[in-house]
Input
Amino acid sequence: MSAPRLAIIGLGLIGGSLARALREAGAAGPIAGYDPDPAQRDAAQRLRVVDHVHDTAAAAVGDADVVVLAVPVLHTAEALRACLPALKADVIVTDVGSTKQSVLDDVERVCGKLPPRFVAAHPIAGTEKSGVAHSQPDLFRRHRVIVTPHAQQDRTAQALVTRLWEAVGARVVEMDARRHDAIFAATSHLPHVLAYSFVDMLAQLDRDHDIFSNAGGGFRDFTRIASSSPQMWHDIVRANAAAVGSLLDRQIDELRQIRTMMRESRWDDLKRLFERARAARERYLAQIE
Ligand SMILES: NC(=O)c1ccc[n+]([C@@H]2O[C@H](COP(=O)([O-])OP(=O)(O)OC[C@H]3O[C@@H](n4cnc5c(N)ncnc54)[C@H](O)[C@@H]3O)[C@@H](O)[C@H]2O)c1
Output
C-alpha cells in the first residue's frame, strides 16, 4: 500500500502527536480527524495537526485505510461504534490505549468478534499534559510501542501498524495483552493512583497548614503525574481494576510495615528498606541506559 490515508479519532495529546509525527515523516497520506470536543477540533484545525477536521466520526473515517482510536480507554467502544457504519471493508483499525485487554474486550463486544484487522497498540510515551495543544511530533521517537496481537490477528495489518510506528521513530515490541496490563499496573497505573492519593491527602491538610507554598523539588518530582488527565486515569484504573487493586493492597501492606517499623523504633530495618529500594532503582536505571 502507498502512504495510507488516515483518520484519527480523538484529537488529544496522543492522537495529535501521532498525526503530526506521521506528517513530518511523510509516512501517511491525507489525515482526517474528529473529536467530540469543539475546542480540540478548533485547536487541531488552527495548529494544522491534521488535513481535515470533521464534525462526526463517520465523516472522518469514510476514506481512511487506517483508523486510529486515540480516546480514553473506556470510550473505545463508543468511538468505534460511531465509526462502524462508515468504515471501508478492508480498513485497519488500531488504538493507543494504556490498557489492552479491556480494549480487546470492548472491540469484541462492539463487533461481535475480534476483527482480524484490529491491531491493539500502546505507545510508551506521553506526558502529564493532555489536549492537542500539547501534541509534539517527536513524542514517540526512541520510545517503545507495545502491540498485543489477538488470536484472529491479521499479520499484514499488524505489520502496517508496526511500520507506521517505526516511521515516527518508535521501536515496536509484541506482548500478550494480559501480561501488558499486569506490567503497566505496576509501573504506571499504581504510581498514578499513589500520586493522586498523596496530593489529595495533603490538599486536605493544607486547609490548615501552609504545605504547598513551602513544597520543594522533591514534592514536584513525586507529584508531577498527579497533573495528568483525571478522565484518562479514571478510565485506566477502572479498566485494569483487578491488577491495580491487588498491587494497591500490597502497597498498603508495605506502608503498614513501614508504620510498624517506626512505631517500634526499628530504624535499622527502615534504613535497610530504603537501601533495598535505592539499589533496585539503580539497577533499573542501569538497565535503561
Ligand atoms: N497521555 C499519555 O501519556 C498517554 C500515553 C500512552 C497512551 N495514552 C492513551 O492514549 C489515549 C488518549 O490519551 P491522551 O493523552 O491523548 O488524552 P487527551 O485527553 O489528550 O485526548 C483524548 C481525546 O479523546 C477525545 N474523546 C473522548 N471520547 C471520544 C469519542 N467517543 N470519540 C472521539 N474522541 C473522543 C477527547 O475529547 C479528547 O480530546 C488514552 O487511551 C490513553 O490511555 C496516553
Q: What stands out?
A: The domain at 179-287 is CATH 1.10.3660.10 (6-phosphogluconate dehydrogenase C-terminal fold).
